[in-house]
Specification:
The protein is an alpha+beta fold and about 120 residues long. It has a single domain, classed as CD59. It is built from two helices and six strands; from the N terminus they run αββββββα. It has helices spanning about 1-15, 105-125, and strands at about 20-30, 30-40, 45-55, 55-65, 75-80, 85-90. Strands 2-1-4-3-6-5 form a six-stranded antiparallel β-sheet, with no helix packed on it. The N and C termini lie far apart (about 85 Å). InterPro entries: LY6_UPA_recep-like, LY6G6C, Snake_toxin-like_sf. It comes from Myotis lucifugus (Little brown bat). Keywords: Signal.
């Protein structure tokens, strides 16, 4: 009887742990993740993170769940020559493994925006 109970609990634990979630958002400089949500992985799929660069400057990231229609395919230094953008995509399959960095402090964002506005006004003179 104890063996049957242990087997039932083990299978329940495996079933519950199979519910893997990924972060889903567009991450941009200064603001961090925009439209942050969570998605549930489908069987056989992986979480993915695509980082986009213009030269060496990070432009944005796309975090999401892979789907059968758009599965995760790792790629390093994949280039779009027309736009000059480079894409790096990584895949993972653990719960919340594509975790975005913590949101930047609002004060830092305001300082950066004020600095950019100051430079813009200075250039107009």
């Amino acid at each position: 009887m104890k063996g049957l109970l242990l087997l039932a609990l083990s299978s329940l634990l495996c079933w519950v742990s199979a519910d893997i979630r990924c972060h889903s958002c567009y991450k941009v400089p200064v603001l961090g993740c925009v439209d942050r949500t969570s998605c549930r992985l489908e069987q056989g799929q992986k979480c993915l993170t695509t980082n986009v660069y213009l030269g060496k400057m990070w432009v944005f990231s796309n975090l999401r769940c892979g789907t059968p229609e758009e599965p995760c395919r790792e790629a390093l230094n994949q280039t779009n020559h027309k736009l000059g953008l480079t894409y790096n995509t990584t895949c993972c399959e653990k719960d919340n493994c594509n975790s975005p960095a913590p949101r930047p402090a609002p004060a830092l964002g305001l300082v950066l925006l004020a600095s950019l506005a100051g430079v813009g006004l200075w250039l107009l003179h």
